Amino acid sequence: MDHSVPPTPSPRSDPITNSESLLELILKLLDDNLAMEIVDINLRGKSTIADFMVIASGRSKRQVISLSEKLIEALKQDHKIKTTVEGKEGGDWVLIDAGDVIIHLFRPEVRNFYQIEKLWLPTESPIRDET
Predict the structure, then answer these.
(1) 10-36 in b/e burial notation, b at 16+ Cβ within 10 A?
(2) 56 has which bridge partners?
(3) Domain range list for the chain
(4) Which superfamily, per CATH, for 38-120?
(5) Could you tell me where the beta strands, DSSP code E, fall in the chain?
(6) What is the mean pLDDT of each run of 10 residues along the chain (131 residues)?
């Protein structure tokens, strides 16, 4: 009789069971990959497109593309979450639809031009990091 303890699944393989878990995963992935000015917006009661929106910046086109690729790959490979992506080739503004969470990744100049936070936030929202 084998009395060994089964291995504990890694946090990366835990199933995503709700939109809050998905949001926290996305925020962690963006933070771990050095995204800047990360903002999350609760869309419940405001829109039916998703439960949350995340907006973040990369320092350059190259970083925006890299952030999007790493996020898409982690969601797909580690959590079996399908995404739809627009704008990755250009690297100015990448839109990732992960179902319950919509992610916008911008170069700072493009983000400043469109200011989409102002469409969804009643007042200035605190930004998660200032790197």
Answers:
(1) eeeeeebeebeebbebbbebbeebebb
(2) 105
(3) 38-120
(4) Beta Polymerase, domain 2 (3.30.460.10)
(5) 36-42, 52-57, 84-86, 93-97, 101-106
(6) 48 66 95 96 91 96 97 92 93 96 97 91 59 49
- Of the candidates 57, 15, 9, 16, the one whose C-alpha atom is nearest the C-alpha of residue 33 is 57
Query: What one-character-per-residue DSSP string does 76-90 give?
Result: IIIH----EEESTTT
Q: Which amino acid is at 27?
A: L
Q: Give residue for tokens 């690729």.
A: 69
Crossing angle for the helix pair 61-73 and 19-32, to the nearest 10 degrees:
140
